Structures are given as structure tokens and as C-alpha cells.
Amino acid sequence: MREIIYYPDSFQTERLFIRPFTDDTIAESAVKDIIQDVRREGDSSLVRYAKILDGATIDSLFVTQEEIENSEFYMDKNVKIAIENASRNIAKFHKAQSVPETDIETLPGVRCVLKRVPIERIGLYIPGGTAPLFSTLLMLAIPAKIAGCKEITVFTPPAKDGSVNKNILYSAKVAGIKNIVKAGGAQAIAAMAYGTESIKKCDKIFGPGNRYVSIAKQFVSNTVSVDMFAGPSELMVIADDTANSSFVAADLLSQAEHGKDSQVILLSLSESFALKCSSEIDKQIQKLSRRKETEESLRKSKMVVISSLDEAIKIANKYAPEHLIIAVKEPWECADRITSAGSIFIGNFSPESAGDYASGTNHTLPTGGWARSQGGITTDSFCRTYTIQEISERGLYSLANTIEVMSAAEGLEAHMNAVKIRIGGVE
User: Rounded to 5, what percent of the chain is helix, strand, coil?
Assistant: First the structure.
């Protein structure tokens, strides 16, 4: 990201913002084998893969209730308080998303109702490894609970000693989660999709993960519903001279540190700001513990100087970033013109990390351009809808001619007769 690209033409712009491509052929083959093993061998395959892939020896696939309940005694006090504070904000925002039932008469005597009910059995994947994402557990479990899902099971990779990260355990306790399975990777997704001797098949799978997890979700999506096919993390920043270069540099680094496949992009309306931001990145990266991963990500990222805010908005809508920070003089005016983004952050004091942890919005968001056609996780993601209609005799008479004409035009005579027989038109 050390190179600054100045005023690219339309052809250059088209090529600049192509996401990095990864050949997943080998990973796909491995995931297919893992899924087949889990379907064939069940619990024993999960224990075996915990040993092979996580280096973990586990006596039981499930975390005990005692471990969950006692997790708070092993917590850092400040982390504990932070989890509780974030939980309150997440719950407040997601409770506010409750939608009233739709119940209307489209014509006199024609009543139409839309019902919204919770999905019964939910599986939540929580990444472990070098960065156990206990914040993701809060982001998924809290709205699932608010929606009213009856069975919520968390799947997360075990540590080498067979334990589960204490921050994940305490987050589960705060969110009211009772079931935690010590399984990660593609094998966890397979267990959610198909079930095992001790694990019930889930109705819907949620949660981000690495390439293997994402590929596994794609493979099982013909069997079970999944939230989205989340890929590497993304951040785009639109900034002008009113932005703070040290703030923007910190934001770019905060997403780049997720891993080598992450992509961050600066669209600067000022040459001097781009130079200052680049200098700040060089300075701040020296202090990061995940400097190696961050450097690899920055090599695939972009810093571009463009001529106008209109151009920046056009690029952002086409790229459809997972996260978009708008640090310009009139940020809300700009935001109102954004049609494709997972989550937007307004102004100099709205870091992306606030959305990742504690502002209240959900951090499970579409990546890879999917923000053009879908949004992030909401309380409604954990529900399904169905409709009811009740039609009186008077109401059917009002609809009869319309139904008869349309069904006849489609050549579906029995559809037409189902109406006529009720109003005396068929002997």
C-alpha cells in the first residue's frame, strides 16, 4: 500500500478495484473429504479432526454447563465489563428492529396476514485460532435470542488442551447460550448441516470463518440455509482534507490486521492527505503485534487519489465494501448517495472497530461485493415469514373475475374452477 495511485482513468479504475483472486481447488477437495467423513463417521470424525487440524485432544465434544457458569471467575475484570457493556448496546439496537405483524384487508372481505416466527434450530460458528472472536458470539447469539430461537448451538475450535477460550465462554454466558461444541473448520459446518449422534441438524447456519469454513458453507447450502458466504474482511475510506490522517491510517490498519487476504482501500480527494496517511501507516504499523499479517494485507490494498466526491461515490457503489468510512466535510450528504455497503461509519470519530464491538450494530456483514444485493445480520435474519389469508364470500366475489381471467390466460382451468365452484359457476 506504499504506492499512491493518482487520478486513474476509467480503464485503470476498473482494474484497480478487482478483488484478489484465490484458487481454492485444493481447499475445495479437502473440504469435500471432511464433509463426507463427518456424514459417515459423526462424532468420532469431529474428535479426530480436532486432533489433526487443531492439535487438540478432547474428552467430550461439548463444553459443560459448569465451565460456562464458572468462566467469569477466570476473566480479566476489564474484558468482563467490556463484554457486558457491548452486550447491552447490541441488545438495545436489535430489540428495536422488531417488526409488527402485517394484517390488512386488500379488499373488503379479503384479509391478508404476514406472520414472522423464529427459526427453531440455529448453529453459530465462532472463529478461534490466533484471534478468538468472542465479539462474533455476541453479534449472533444476542439477536438469535431476541428473535426467540429455541435451540442455539455454538461451534468453536478447541485449544490444544481441549479447552474453549474463556472470553468465548463468558460471552456465551452473558448471551444465555447453553450448548457449545468443540469443533471448528469445515467439520463444524458439516456437523451443523447433517448432524451427528450427539449433534442435532441445524435449520440455519451463521458465522464467518476462514476459506475452509466459507467453502463448506457453500457446499452444504443445498441442504441447509446459511447466512451468507463471507470472505476476507474489507474496508474502504472516502476522505478529504477535513479528515484526520492518523485516524484514517489507524482504521485502515485495523482491518488489514485481520489477515493476509483482507483488503483496505483509501479514496482520497487530496494529494497531501494521501501522503500524510501513507506516512502515518508507516509509523503506526511498527507498533503492531500482528505486523506480518498486516503487511501482507497492505500489499493487496490500494491508496488512490481521485478528483471528485462524485467519483468516490461511484467507485464505492460499484465495489460495495463490507465497511465504508466517510470522513468528508458533508458526510451524511455523501452517505445518502451510497447504495451498496455492508455498514457505513460517519465522520472522524466513528472508527470501524466501534461497529466490530460495541456501538450496537452487527458486524456480520456481506463481503466480496455481496453488499450490492444483501445486507448484514439483523434480528430478522433469525426469523422466517409466512402468510395467511382469509376470504369471505363477498371477498371472493370481488376477486373472482380477476382470478378467472388470469388463470384462463395461463391455461390452468382447475385454478379457475376452484373459484367458480364456490360462486356457483360450476355444476
Answer: 45, 15, 35
User: Of the listed 257, 322, 352, 404, which one is catalytic?
Assistant: 322
Residue type at 178?
K
CA 399, CA 404: separation in Å to the nearest integer? 9
Q: Would you identify the CATH topology of the domain 392-427?
A: 1.20.5
Q: Which residues pair with 344 in a beta bridge?
A: 324
Whether 322 sits among the annotated catalytic residues: the reply is yes
- At residue 64, does pLDDT exceed 70? yes
Would residue 295 show up in a list of annotated catalytic residues for this protein? no
Rg (CA), the chain: 25
Q: Are 175 and 145 in contact (CB under 8 A)?
A: yes
Pick among 3.40.50.10610, 3.40.50.1980, 3.40.50.300, 3.40.720.10: CATH of 25-98+119-226: 3.40.50.1980
Q: What is the pLDDT of residues 185-214, one digit of tens each?
A: 999 999 999 999 999 999 999 999 888 999
**Among 234, 323, 363, 404, the one annotated catalytic:** 323
The three-state secondary structure class of 151 is strand
Whose CA is closest to 155, among 107, 123, 108, 133? 123
How does residue 427 score in pLDDT terms, banded at 50, 70 and 90?
Answer: low
Residues 89-112: pLDDT tens digits? 999 999 999 888 999 999 999 999
% of the chain with per-residue pLDDT over 90:
85
Write out the three cell numbers for 190.
458439516
CATH of domain 231-375: 3.40.50.1980
Give the integer Cα–Cα distance in Å for 253 and 258: 9
